[in-house]
Amino acid sequence: MFEQFKNPDGKTYNGVAAMAAVTGIPPDEMSWMAKRIQALVKVGTPRGQISRIVKEEAKARPWEQKP
């Protein structure tokens, strides 16, 4: 089932692509969410607040913004 998500090294998997396929969330959005969650965890944001913050920030669709 997850063979389609194997990376070229043949040992690891593309988690973003797999989660996008499972959830139906587009890969760009899923990648943004993963990076944003990691950043919030790194600065010590309480876990109970992370979901709320990500949902609120996602309204602006930052994954579509050009850097």
Annotate the secondary structure layout.
Elements: H1 15-23, H2 27-42, H3 47-58
What does this 3D model show about the protein?
The chain is mostly helical. It has one domain. Helices cover 55% and strands 0% of the residues. α2 runs antiparallel to α3. The longest helix has 16 residues. The radius of gyration is 14 Å and the shape is globular. The mean pLDDT is 93.
Pick out its properties.
mainly alpha
Oligomeric form of this entry? single chain
Radius of gyration, taken over Cα atoms and rounded to an integer in Å: 14 Å
Number of helices: 3
Q: What is the mean predicted local confidence, pLDDT?
A: 93
Structural class, by secondary structure, is mainly alpha
Quickly describe the structure.
The chain is an all-alpha fold. The protein contains three helices and no strands. The N and C termini lie far apart (35 Å).
